[in-house]
Amino acid sequence: GAVVSQHPSWVICKSGTSVKIECRSLDFQATTMFWYRQFPKQSLMLMATSNEGSKATYEQGVEKDKFLINHASLTLSTLTVTSAHPEDSSFYICSARVIQGYEQYFGPGTRLTVT
Amino acid sequence: AQTVTQSQPEMSVQEAETVTLSCTYDTSESDYYLFWYKQPPSRQMILVIRQEAYKQQNATENRFSVNFQKAAKSFSLKISDSQLGDAAMYFCAYRSAVLSGAGSYQLTFGKGTKLSVIP
Predict the structure, then answer these.
(1) Chain-chain contact of B43 with A93 (C-beta, under 8 angstroms)
(2) Looking at chain A, which runs of residues are DSSP E strands?
(3) pLDDT confidence of residue B100
(4) What is the CA A106 to chain-centroid distance, rounded?
């Protein structure tokens, strides 16, 4: 149980285009989902927290207009990287928290390459 | 704000031996949770072990155990009988027991320790 999926697992896009990454909790409902960014050989950096039905809370230094987060249902959150540039190339990981629980379950991550 | 420090960027251990990964943290809170996560080359984050700060007993999960020293704010991970599959990045993480403003249970991660297992 407690499986989180991400789609796509790897995406390559051209500079200036937008790309959407989906995060789904497959067998549980999640009121809260988290989006992280991880550069090679570095730790996870929290980008934003999304609560179902409300606006996401972004960490300091994260551009909310560039990284659009939508959490429209208890099983789906999306991260859209708008007008992507090569510096946005990174590994993006989502996690989901079970309702009335404290565990976070992580997705397998999405590798974004912007050319 | 809470901080988590892992002072060992890389560690290695001989297969079947024991290794200890260090983690210290800084917080003014009295109630919180501490975690060790494993990130193998697949990059899937896997929860290894969890410790509640209010529990004095150290958590154990099979070959994995922790040494939780609350006063010293130390939370080390011991891996016994190391196996090749234990090779991974290991992240120590902190979570407050108090809901944040976003009601979110955010995790604060250390920078990680890369563990190599030598056959």
Answers:
(1) yes
(2) 4-7, 10-13, 19-25, 30-38, 44-51, 57-58, 67-73, 76-81, 90-98, 104-106, 110-114
(3) 62
(4) 10
- Considering only alpha carbons, which residue of chain B is nearest residue A54? B102
Mean pLDDT of chain B: 93
Burial class (CB in 10 A: 0-12, 13-18, 19+), B111: middle
Per-residue confidence (pLDDT) for residue B101, from 0 to 100: 58
> CA of B32: which chain A residue's CA is closest?
A102
Report how far apart, in Å, the C-alpha atoms of B69 and of each of A44, B59, B94 are.
Answer: 25, 12, 14
Reading the block at residue A36, the tokens are: 């992280």
Structure tokens at A68: 């659009």
The pLDDT of B52-63, averaged and rounded, is: 93
The two beta strands, B3-5 and B24-26, are antiparallel
The yes-or-no verdict on residue B45 having pLDDT over 60 is: yes
C-beta atoms of A51 and B91 within 8 A: no
Look at A81 and A97; give whichever has higher pLDDT: A81
Structure confidence by residue, pLDDT tens digits, A40-55: 889 999 999 998 888 8
- Candidates A95, A109, A98, A107; CA nearest to A33 is A95
Phi/psi at A9 (nearest 5 deg)?
Answer: -85, -25
Token output for B8: 């060992």
Measured CA to CA, the distance from residue A86 to residue A77 in angstroms comes to 24
